[in-house]
Write a structure and sequence with these properties.
The complex is a heterodimer of chains A (298) and B (312). Chain A is mostly helical. Chain A has a domain at 73-232 and 280-297: Orthogonal Bundle (MetI-like fold), CATH 1.10.3720. Chain A has 17 helices and no strands. In chain A, α5 runs antiparallel to α12 and α5 (73-104) packs across α14 (230-239). Chain B has a two-stranded antiparallel sheet with strand order 1-2. In chain B, α8 packs antiparallel against α11, α11 packs across α13 and α12 (201-209) runs antiparallel to α13 (214-239). The longest helix of chain B is centred in the middle third of the chain and has 30 residues, at 169-198. Chain B has two domains: 16-55, no CATH class; 75-306, MetI-like (MetI-like fold). Chain B has helices at 5-10, 16-25, 27-50, 64-67, 74-80, 83-103, 105-116, 120-131, 138-148, 154-159, 169-198, 201-209, 214-239, 246-251, 258-261, 264-274, 278-306, and strands at residues 57-58, 69-70. Chain B is mostly helical and 312 residues long. Classes of the chains: A mainly alpha (298), B mainly alpha (312). At the A-B interface, α2, α5, α6, α7 and α11 of A face α1, α2, α3, α7 and α8 of B.
Chain lengths: 298, 312
């Protein structure tokens, strides 16, 4: 069986392997322990958390923090906004990027080098924060969702990945569909899109995660609290240390409020990070593929 | 990112008429496929590039970019002679160079270690775990760091002190770089892992038959298999040392650790958007991008040399 195929290790090999596994184990634990700590801390009683940190006595655990977090409207609104922005951004971004990559993947495309240079320049040089801010302001996009959806929608790097992927697809596919009389648009949507599922999955995941986790654009362009994505709500709770008033309004003493506020941070982290942490393993099979496309040509 | 110019030549030079005919016949490629990306690029990338003129003017909103008073290199003179600016420039460089030196080898070591695991199931579980932090947002990561390092946080409970790490300029870089490794080292190892699994198994078996031990296998078979990716990755990351991101540094800043944590991008934000000094901050931003471009051109030149004339 499998053991028969295995290599035989010498004593010194075993020692080296042992050291290697210890190192790897140490790294794995250093990843795991902070995550576990946050999970366990989120179930603590605020007084226990404040005095001794976490305790593994499950009988004393409470879901009070989760109740307070989940009853908060700001969190839910942040979720709804972030989800909406991320979905719309992913659709726009992946579509624009895939579309642009298609002609750019054709060797005979007239103007290919010219457009390539136009796009590449933007990877190296940009106007920077202030000129972009002034432009968005003058276009009257401040406090509209377009301020965070449009400027980054076309991603040159992703276009290059998609282009490279297209080039690995046999040209005969297009020749065959051309004989059937399909236009480029028909060919793209009916034939290319299904063939390109792996690269679409990777680009969609990256666009979604990128939008979900970013906060800078929203911080400078969306002042209206109703429009704010989850990360800005989290920023005020976790970084600026100002809990949502509604979460702790029922508590009388200021000292107790501070303890509960600290506890709520842990529950907030879990609630806000869970969706992506649950989602990404479903994309794992596409990771290697997507990364390889990038690294080979990168 | 290859330009493909060599290949384009091989399809033969076409006359203007032929090109025009191609465009006419394939108008869909231009109007439907390319246009959206081109419009977004022109509007949101090229127009702001024109906006860098602000760096040379006493900009005010009413007169606009073309009407404001021209001040030439005034802002550049001002910040290049300012000790604050020099401090922030040094902060930026230190943060990214130390980050590169500490952070770069770890994903490679991780990939080599993962490659030794023969049981696919265990390997996959470890990978799944070490990729996870990459999907945590910058804000949540910085929130966790702040909680763990707070005076009453778990780190202080563990070592029995009540230090306020987030207020110490001396601790900032370590915090920034260590949390960065925690978040991205696993994810960055994917590329090397994938390259290793594509490496020739025959060569490895031959090495085993020749009696090579594990270190020799790594040195003579596995490292050569990923050498190109290592070199390119290093050069790419070295080319990006001036473009270190705003989001994380800003989320880890406190009033007290600013002497170490203020970098050029956060400085531009502070003086530009918070204090409204558009001209000066645009000049600082422009200075930053220009150094960045020079670095990248240099890097591209190095990659070309190493990569048989294939640039980025």
């Amino acid at each position: 069986m499998e053991t028969a195929k295995k290599k035989k290790y010498t004593a010194s090999d075993k020692a080296i392997l042992g050291i290697g596994y210890v190192l790897l184990g140490a790294f794995v634990f250093s990843i795991l322990i902070p995550l576990l700590y946050v999970v366990i801390a989120s179930f603590m009683d605020p007084n226990v958390l404040n005095s001794q940190g976490i305790s593994l006595d499950i009988r004393k655990w409470t879901v009070d923090a989760y109740r307070r977090v989940l009853e908060n409207n700001m969190i839910w609104r942040g979720f709804a906004n972030s989800f909406f922005y991320s979905v719309v951004f992913t659709i726009i971004s992946v579509l624009v990027t895939l579309l642009a990559a298609y002609p750019m993947s054709k060797k005979e495309f007239v103007g290919r080098n010219f457009f390539n240079v136009i796009f590449l320049i933007t990877m190296f040089f940009g106007g920077g924060m202030i000129p972009t801010f002034i432009l968005i302001n003058q276009l009257h996009l401040v406090n509209t969702i377009w301020a965070i959806l449009l400027p980054g929608a076309f991603n040159v790097w992703n276009m290059i990945l998609a282009r490279t992927y297209y080039q690995s697809i046999p040209k005969e596919l297009r020749e065959a569909s051309a004989i059937d009389g399909a236009t480029e648009i028909e060919h793209f949507f009916k034939i290319m899109m299904p063939v390109c599922k792996p690269i679409i999955a990777v680009l969609a995941l990256w666009s979604f995660v990128g939008m979900w986790n970013s906060y800078f654009d929203a911080m400078i362009y969306l002042n209206d609290a109703k429009l704010q994505p989850l990360q800005l709500v989290l920023r005020s709770i976790l970084v600026q240390n100002t809990p949502q008033p509604g979460m702790i309004a029922d508590i009388q003493s200021t000292a107790q409020m501070a303890k509960v506020a600290e506890l709520l941070k842990y529950a907030t982290i879990i609630v806000s990070s869970l969706p992506l942490l649950i989602m990404y393993p479903f994309f794992q099979k596409y990771f290697d593929q997507g990364i390889m496309v990038g690294s080979v040509k990168g | 990112m290859r330009k493909g110019s060599a290949k384009a030549v091989s399809t033969g030079k076409r006359t203007c008429a032929q090109k025009l005919q191609y465009v006419k016949k394939n108008w869909q490629l231009y109007v439907f496929f390319l246009m959206p990306a081109l419009l977004l690029t022109i509007i949101f990338k090229y127009i702001p590039m024109g906006g860098v003129l602000i760096a040379f003017e006493d900009y005010n909103v009413i007169d606009g970019i073309f009407g404001s008073k021209w001040v030439g290199l005034e802002y550049f003179r001002r910040f290049l002679s300012s000790p604050d600016f020099m401090n922030y420039l040094v902060n930026t460089l230190k943060l990214s160079i130390y980050g590169l030196l500490w952070g770069f080898p770890i994903p490679i070591i991780l990939a080599l270690l993962l490659n030794q695991i023969r049981r696919a199931g265990i390997k996959k579980k470890i990978q799944l775990l070490i990729y996870a932090p990459n999907f945590i947002s910058v804000i949540v990561l910085c929130g966790m760091v702040r909680m763990f390092l707070s005076p009453v946080g778990p780190l202080n409970k563990l070592i029995g002190s009540d230090a306020n790490w987030m207020t110490m300029p001396a601790a900032f870089r370590t915090i920034y770089i260590a949390s960065g490794i925690w978040q991205t080292a696993g994810w960055s190892s994917i590329m090397y892992t994938a390259a290793l699994s594509n490496a020739s198994k025959d060569l490895e078996e031959a090495a085993v038959v020749d009696g090579a031990n594990i270190l020799q296998q790594i040195w003579y078979v596995q490292l050569p298999a990923i050498k190109n990716i290592i070199v390119i990755q290093f050069i790419l990351q070295a080319g990006n040392i001036m473009s270190i991101g705003f989001e994380k540094a800003y989320a880890l800043q406190t009033d007290m650790n600013l002497p170490a944590s203020e970098i050029l991008s956060t400085y531009v934000y502070r003086i530009g958007l918070l204090n409204g000094d558009y001209g000066y901050s645009t000049a600082v931003g422009l200075f930053n991008s220009v150094i960045n471009v020079i670095l990248l051109i240099f890097v591209n030149w190095v990659v070309k040399k190493l990569n048989d004339g294939e640039g980025l």
